[in-house]
Amino acid sequence: MNTHYSVDQVISLHKRQRFKEAFPLFHQLALKGDSLACYYAGLYLYEGGYGVEKNEIEALQLFYKSAISNNVLGWYMYANACLYGNYYSRKEGLKYLKKSADENHPDALYMLSQIFLNGEHGYEIDNDKYEGYLTKAANHGSEKAQKELATLRKDKMSRDIKFLRGHLI
Predict the structure, then answer these.
(1) What are the angstrom distances between the C-alpha of 11 and each of 21, 68, 103, 142, 156?
(2) 14: which of 3, 35, 139, 168 is 20 to 30 A away, CA to CA?
(3) pLDDT tens digit sequence for 2-28
(4) What are the pLDDT digits (tens) for 70-116?
(5) Which CATH number describes the domain made up of 104-169?
(6) Cα(111)–Cα(92) distance, integer angstroms
(7) How distant, in Å, are the alpha carbons of 5, 50, 83, 145 from that of 8?
(8) What is the per-residue pLDDT across 141-153, written as a single tens digit (0 to 9) for each?
(9) What is the distance between the alpha carbons of residues 75 and 88, in angstroms, rounded to a whole number?
(10) How far apart (Å, rounded) are the C-alpha atoms in residues 29 and 5?
């Protein structure tokens, strides 16, 4: 196996959907400490598929290694795995989710919006925080947040019109 690939070259393989070639190279670079390679190798192991056997424990370790190297993508995936994977850690998950949201990671912002919408992980339902994080996620490119925000605004407008009609008649 060629050990002279840069992480950018391996990401290029990944983007061209050459997953079976990319994973061993990501894994090799991750073992050498590359934080972005840790993130990508972790993704392959967390999801499984593409010739890679699912291994959530190793994925969590790689996401953590990426996270402690101050990689925003690593922060988000480590948080996601801690909060919604098989090895729940509320404290770690929320710590790294907030860090990635503070850096305006759109998926982290969206995840926080859902936590406040549903009252999860020790938080009470908080519609103001839900809408705030949802708006921020939408503004930073989250398509899910953009769609949800459009629906929310449409529903609010519909309720406002019904309210006004009820009071103007």
Answers:
(1) 11, 21, 22, 22, 42
(2) 139
(3) 558 999 999 999 999 999 999 999 999
(4) 999 999 999 999 999 998 899 999 999 999 999 999 999 999 999 99
(5) 1.25.40
(6) 15
(7) 8, 20, 29, 29
(8) 999 999 999 998 8
(9) 15
(10) 9
